[in-house]
Amino acid sequence: MAICAVYLVFVIAIVVDVGGRLRVAERTDAYAQEAARVGGQQLDQAAVLQGKGVKVKQEYVKQAANAYLGVYGLKAAQVDFSADGTVVTVTVESDFRPVLLGRFGERKVLGKGSATLVHGVEKAETD
């Protein structure tokens, strides 16, 4: 009976902590997606006014993404851009500390989100 009780407690600890890790991963993905969306709104106004097309200003994207993530105590691990400057991808790294397994289950959790810049008056255009 004692062996079964120890085994049952261990299984419950694994289930609780794996569920917690999944929640952290989901939340990290959501933060990364929103950081990419916020970053994708940072247009290169000079390029637009010169007729060079609609694209993002890369240094402003990183600042905006980190400002958004800073509210949650996070920072962008990486910010990538497509060759044409219309897609922003943000990678966020957060820590997971398990409730019941202690240091045994500590992990880094990566979240990734991307946003595509669209524009248009009547409908979205992506050139």
Rg for CA atoms: 20 Å
pLDDT average, as an integer? 84
Shape: elongated
Report how far the terminal alpha carbons are from each other. Answer: 68 Å
In words, what does this structure look like?
This protein has a 3-stranded antiparallel beta sheet, covered by helices on one side. It is built from 3 helices and 3 strands; from the N terminus they run H-H-H-E-E-E. The protein is an alpha+beta fold and 127 residues long. The longest helix has 38 residues, at 2-39.
In summary, what is this structure?
The protein has three helices and three strands, in the order αααβββ.
Could you name the key traits of this structure?
127 residues; alpha+beta; 3 helices; 3 strands
List the helices and strands and how they pair.
Elements (H helix, E strand, L loop, with lengths): L1 H38 L5 H5 L8 H13 L5 E6 L5 E10 L10 E10 L11
Antiparallel strand pairs: 1-2, 2-3
Helix pairs in contact: 1-3
